[in-house]
Design goal:
The structure holds two protein chains of two kinds.
Chain A: H1 2-23, H2 28-55, E1 61-71, E2 108-109, H3 110-122, E3 126-127, E4 130-131, E5 134-137, E6 147-150, E7 157-168, E8 174-189, E9 193-197, E10 202-206, E11 213-219, H4 226-243, E12 255-264, E13 274-277, H5 282-301, E14 310-314, E15 319-322, E16 335-336, E17 343-344, H6 364-369, H7 375-386, H8 390-398, H9 402-412, H10 417-434, H11 446-458, H12 463-475, H13 481-488, H14 496-509, H15 511-519, H16 524-535, H17 542-553
Parallel strand pairs in A: 13-14
Antiparallel strand pairs in A: 1-11, 1-12, 3-7, 4-17, 5-6, 5-16, 7-8, 8-11, 9-10, 12-13, 14-15
Helix pairs in contact in A: 1-2, 4-5, 7-8, 9-10, 9-11, 11-12, 14-16, 14-17, 16-17
Chain B: H1 3-17, H2 28-34, H3 39-51, H4 89-99, H5 106-119, E1 144-145, H6 155-160, E2 165-166, E3 169-172
Antiparallel strand pairs in B: 2-3
Classes of the chains: A alpha+beta, B mainly alpha.
């Protein structure tokens, strides 16, 4: 911003110079004096401008980087053969290695390696053909070994990009696409779960989760607000769910996001960052980040300094609080894992050593060929095959199961995809959100909606009646659309004489509106149309009514 | 002659023969056992053992061994080492906290400094262009296990190992107990 304004200043100066030269080409000395005076006045203005700008400081903007831990969806854990399950009796899914009993060694799970490679390929990362395992040491009761096996020096994938979109703009219906760089993806072990019992002053440790494979995705701090971060995490969730590597439920702890937030003025070096933990949904992520940015701006404006600390998000109050038990900057004493040789991933089956069994080899070509349809490919496919807007396909893919619903309706109805999109995205989705239901729990099935739209296409009902019938179907899903129309006599009124009579009545009872229309104000016609529709209980064909009214009021 | 003298002479003899062939070493224990027989029998058997050397597959004749005949290592002089690093008190505190090792007194600190100085000898070695080795397994293939359940379900055996358990959970103190500060020692 500063650079561009400086550029404008010099441009202004140059333009004025040129003008002066044109005006006074003869007397060069005079020209030079004038130029100098004007230049000094302009430069003074520029300096003043800058001084003014310095006293009113540039806006502090937030810088957000995310660290995402995604639990790999596999049957067994990363380094041991015990099962991975969400809720189980405490300490029942623990093997001797997970409990860190002496004499146990780690044995890597092939499925976890494939999951990490698939995720890396889906996020356009460079897969490191040789990656190494390290130990990260810290003491805590839920880490029985005292160290966590991770990949810090050479992770399995580096340098990727996550492209995400969110609905922005003034009316929140423009698709804004951004991207964030992914620094690395690494495989690591999860720690156990600790339940704090403050009353008795103890912590209860459950090691069921200890040793489960995690993919840590470290993103560069390219984002600037909570909304972008939430959109990025949503896109990541969709990608991981499409790949099948992670189910991505943040509330179940399968996808854990920690945000690193700092504020700075554009052009200045980054400020001190704080880490925000304990976030369990996309919405809470946005709230936490926005609160933290505001808090840091407040601290800096009051003249204080931001501490480098870890804060916990309290979802009830929407505030971040400093976490207890944090002792300054941790030194993890990273050390190469001596029990695990390097992990090698091969390009093609031919590059794998011939004496090794195929089950011992992970081949990039095969993994790449097995990648399913990713969300962004799905969006472009929907836009191309159904000729809908990118914003519509974004909403379709964003909601679980909505794409299948939409495709089922389009298959069974005569109405065009654009009409169906309007119904699905606005009417159906609105009701689902209002009642906090998911698409699979919707009382109106795709077949019922398709029937309703067919009736509308055939001309048996008008569009406003169709909406009424939809509401009825929602409330009482046992009846079909046809039954409701017959019961409530909502069929379209196409009897022209009837409509003429009603229009005449309305025109007669509102002479001043008619005068206004004849005067040139066409918008009043809509009001008259509304009155006619009210008379006919919405059953009249709007196109016919409009033409009759126009004819009567001309 | 005592047992010890016997083994010493034996070692001198074998060293002088040289490393061309590998002999079965006669250990002190077997020497002690044989002493129970008559000494003459023992000497006879010993010499027989010496004169029938066992050739293993890597003993070759006519090929020089890489083990030098005279020791080649030299002690590293003090001036070759980089300057000794000071160990400030807060670094000692940090080390105690990270590694949970106690340096309670001056002797512990002196021991630490000596250990650091000993490790400084590594700086004398020129490692230009050599990749560090982190494990002797680095040329082996990493074994990849199939994703099938093979372990688990031994909660009772694991809980028996802990002194304190509450309803199948392990019990731990609430958070990390901070180490006592330097002043409190």
């Amino acid at each position: 911003m500063a650079a561009s304004s400086a550029g404008i200043g010099t441009l202004l100066c140059k333009n004025i110079n040129k003008q002066i030269e044109i005006f006074y080409p003869t007397n060069r000395r005079y020209t030079w004096c004038v130029i100098r005076r004007i230049c000094t006045s302009i430069s003074r203005f520029r300096c003043q401008g800058q001084i003014k700008r310095k006293s009113a400081p540039k806006e502090l903007v937030g810088v957000v980087g995310l660290e995402v831990h995604a639990q790999i969806q596999s049957i067994t854990k990363l380094f041991s053969g015990s099962q991975v399950r969400f809720q189980a009796p405490p300490n029942s899914l623990v093997s001797f290695f997970d409990a860190s009993l002496p004499g146990t060694l780690p044995v890597l799970n092939r499925r976890c390696v494939e999951a990490a490679v698939m995720t890396g390929l889906a996020l356009d990362c460079v897969i490191n053909r040789k990656s190494l395992f390290d130990r990260k040491h810290y003491f805590y009761a839920d880490l029985p070994a005292g160290y966590q096996i991770t990949q810090q020096r050479r992770p399995i994938a580096v340098d990727g990009t996550l492209t995400y979109s969110h609905l922005g703009g003034t009316r929140r219906n423009t698709l804004i696409t951004k991207s964030v760089r992914i620094k690395q993806i690494q495989l690591e072990q999860d720690s156990g779960k600790s339940l704090h019992d403050d009353r008795r002053g103890q912590t209860l440790i459950d090691l069921n989760r200890a040793g489960v494979g995690l993919m840590e995705l470290v993103m560069e701090p390219d984002m600037s607000c909570g909304e972008e971060a939430a959109a990025a995490v949503r896109e990541l969730q969709l990608i991981l769910q499409a790949l099948g590597t992670c189910q991505g439920h943040m509330d179940e702890g399968q996808l854990r996001v920690d945000a690193n937030v700092s504020v700075h003025r554009p052009g200045d070096p980054w400020g001190v960052r704080t880490e925000v933990k304990n976030i369990n949904s996309g919405r809470n992520l946005a709230r936490a980040i926005d609160y933290e940015i505001q808090r840091q701006v407040g601290v800096l404006k009051n003249g204080g300094t931001v501490q480098n600390e870890t804060r916990s998000f309290d979802r009830k109050s929407g505030h971040t609080l400093p976490m207890r038990d944090k002792e300054g900057l941790q030194d993890y004493r990273f050390m190469p894992e001596p029990n695990l040789p390097p992990l090698i991933v091969y390009d093609r089956p031919s590059t794998a050593p011939p004496c090794v069994h195929p089950s011992q080899v992970v081949v990039l070509e095969e993994v790449r060929a097995g990648l399913p349809e990713l969300p962004r490919a799905r969006r472009t496919r929907l836009v191309e095959s159904y000729d809908i807007l990118p914003e519509h396909s974004f909403t379709l893919v964003n909601e679980d199961g909505l794409t299948d619903y939409f495709e089922a309706v389009v298959k069974e109805t005569k109405a065009g995809p654009r009409k169906v999109i309007g119904w699905v995205n606005q009417v159906l989705l609105g009701l689902l959100h209002h009642h906090s239901l998911s698409v699979s729990q919707s009382p109106v099935t795709p077949q019922m909606l398709a029937q309703l739209l067919n009736l509308q296409e055939n001309g048996q009902i008008s569009s406003s009646v169709a909406k009424q019938v939809f509401q009825e179907l929602w409330r009482a899903p046992g009846k079909t659309a046809q039954q409701i129309i017959q019961e409530q006599d909502l069929g379209i009124v196409s009897n022209t004489t009837e409509i003429h009579r009603i229009c005449q009545k309305v025109v007669d009872s509102h002479p001043d509106q008619v005068q206004a229309i004849r005067g040139g104000n066409k918008k009043v016609l809509n009001k008259l149309m509304g009155l006619v529709q009210k008379e006919t209980k919405g059953r009249a064909d709007p196109v016919l009514v409009r033409s009759i009214l126009e004819e009567k009021t001309s | 002659m005592s047992v010890v003298n016997y083994t010493r002479t034996l070692q001198k003899v074998i060293l002088n023969i040289g490393p061309r062939c590998y002999h079965r070493w006669v250990t002190t224990a077997s020497v002690a056992l044989r002493i129970r027989d008559s000494k003459q029998n023992f000497r006879c058997r010993l010499w027989c053992g010496l004169l029938t050397p066992v050739h293993y597959q890597y003993s070759t004749e006519g090929n020089t061994s890489k083990v030098p005949s005279v020791a080649t290592w030299e002690p590293v002089l003090e001036n070759q080492l980089p300057p000794a690093k000071q160990v400030p008190a807060d670094l000692v505190d940090k080390l105690e906290r990270l590694a949970l090792v106690d340096f309670p007194n001056q002797e512990g600190l002196v021991c630490l400094k000596k250990a650091i100085r000993f490790a400084d000898q590594l700086h004398v070695v020129d490692t230009e262009g050599v990749d560090p080795m982190d494990s002797v397994l680095e040329n082996r293939a990493l074994y990849l296990r199939e994703d099938a359940v093979a372990e688990g379900d031994c909660a009772d055996r694991l809980l028996q190992l802990s002194k304190d358990t509450v309803e199948e959970y392990f019990v731990a103190p609430p958070g990390n107990i901070p180490l006592p500060g330097r002043e409190e020692c």
